[in-house]
Amino acid sequence: MSKFGNLKAVIWDMDGVIVDSGPIHFDSWHNTLEQYSLFVSEADLRRMFGMTSPEVIKILFGNEVTEKFVAQLCEEKELLFREAIQENAQYIPGVEYWLNEFKQSGIKQAIASSGSQENIDAVLDTLSTRFYLDAVVSGKDMPSKPDPHVFIEAAKQLGVEPKNCLVIEDAIAGVAGAKSAGMKCLALTTTNHAEELENADLILKNLESLSEPILTTLFL
Fold first, then answer.
1. How far from the centroid of its chain's Cα atoms is residue 3's Cα?
2. Neighbour tally for 182: CB within 10 Å
3. What does the pLDDT look like over 32-74, one tens digit per residue?
4. pLDDT in tens, 105-135
5. What is the CATH number of domain 22-88?
6. Superfamily, domain 9-20+90-217
7. What's the whole-model pTM score?
8. How many other CB atoms are found less than 10 A from the CB of residue 211?
9. Can you give 22-35 as a three-state secondary structure string?
10. In Å, what is the CA distance from 210 to each residue of 36, 99, 186, 213, 216?
11. What residue ranges of the chain are covered by domains with CATH 3.40.50.1000?
């Protein structure tokens, strides 16, 4: 048993958890969709936060769109995102402390993000986060959250049973996916209100509010 009870691995979402990239994603979506004469409110985009970009596009334009169109629009949006995030990436308060704390405590760590590998690389390289991680999983070509596939794959790569994993999320779809995977979920109110994340095991404003006793109670 670790210092955090039966916790053996932490699986981090990236956008809105490691880095406050929500506003950059929203701006990238707005600027891209403008070229196609489509306006989507921030509230609507927030509800889709955590889903893969192809899934978002199919929701916005309909499932009848071609794969070529989806790929083109994804690339336009993601290019805008990567250019902006490399200039603006900063850890969300408390994240760097807990990355180091888990590393020092022998807890395995992974990124499980719906973002493309290129987006993940842009953030991790800008913040020098790879030192803390044992696995990095992109869910871009997997079933989109709330499907649990990306979390299950991360646990598999870490060699840890789902019941011994903590997922840190901010998205409604991400919380649902974590619970469906049979994992504990800590939700941050970075992107959504607490009442929208009520299915999580623990809800916090940010990781500065997390303590060893609070975390341990989830894994007794």
1. 25
2. 14
3. 998 888 888 888 888 887 788 888 899 999 888 899 999 999 8
4. 999 999 999 988 988 999 999 999 999 999 9
5. 1.10.150.240
6. HAD superfamily/HAD-like (3.40.50.1000)
7. 0.83
8. 8
9. HHHHHHHHHHHHHC
10. 43, 12, 10, 9, 10
11. 9-20+90-217
